[in-house]
Amino acid sequence: MSGRVVLLNGTPSSGKTTLAKALQEVLDPPHWYRSLDDFIKGYLPKHWDSARGPWSEAHRRVLFMNVLHGYLRSLRAMAQVGHPIISESVILPLTRDLYLDSLADLEVYLFGVRCPLAVAQERERARRDRQQGVPIELDVPEFDLAHSHGPYDAEVDTSMMSVAQCVSTLTSALERPPSAFLRLRAERVASDDARPCLFCEVVAGTRAAHVVLETPATTAFMDQLRQPPDPAHVLVIPKAHVENIYAVGPALGAELFEAHALVARAVKRAFAPDGITTWSSNERGANQEIPHFHLHVYPRRVGIPYPPLLAKPETPVADDALRLSAERLRRAIDELRD
Ligand SMILES: [Zn+2]
After folding, report:
1. Which band of pLDDT confidence, cut at 50, 70 and 90, is reported for residue 310?
2. Does residue 41 sit in the same domain as residue 143?
3. The CATH number of the domain where 91 resides is what?
């Protein structure tokens, strides 16, 4: 039987670690505890330092999301083999679905650990364990967003309650069945079901897209996100709503493959990349974000890192840039077909 997961959610310096250790002292059976910080410290401080480290700022953000992903998968694995777990989280709008999916179907207690900004800042300044000794900047929009997801099984305010009072509140809550995480999971599943399919809208023409190729059963268009400096990242999709690769039959498969091969040749002809990577992601476990099958055609340049697969980019690529690239690709496709 899986172990339960006690998730302490709050901003940095809200007192999560102190509480986690105090809970660990009193909980029976013993609970296993590792924080996300422990996982981050799996790399050296110099690796995370953008001035000295090997990674660009953008790559560091991707890597952070990768570490978070690994952390949550590790928690899941430990719970699934029976360990009761204490863990910490900062659930933000950007990472909320990752938490909800990673810990789905486990018994999760979601506890809010609050403290006012001024108190957290004071604690942050007093800390000695930050990378390079630099306190984390807390006066940012994320500070308020850490509790924006909604319900908790219990909440504590570490600026007003002693550690013992907080522990007592949380251990009492652990005697009742959890409900907050289940509610959030249910909301997520319901909103997924209700959402119209973006790619079906592209096929229907009700959503704008820069289409570069159409065949009887497929459409290819510019990806709006995650473009290399010279935008030429193309998605090739079936016109029918086919959710993932498991439902792609031989005829559609052949047409999709031929279409994406033609697009790849066109990208090579029009943009002369050093190479091209193509891929598809299937199911949430593989980070498929839009449940309508799509093949990516992505041009690569030596020295330019692979696109972020986990972090969602903040803003779509400028429409003008996509339009110009689409024109170049359509011309290349016409030349290749002649
Ligand atoms: Zn669809």
Report:
1. very low
2. yes
3. 3.40.50.300
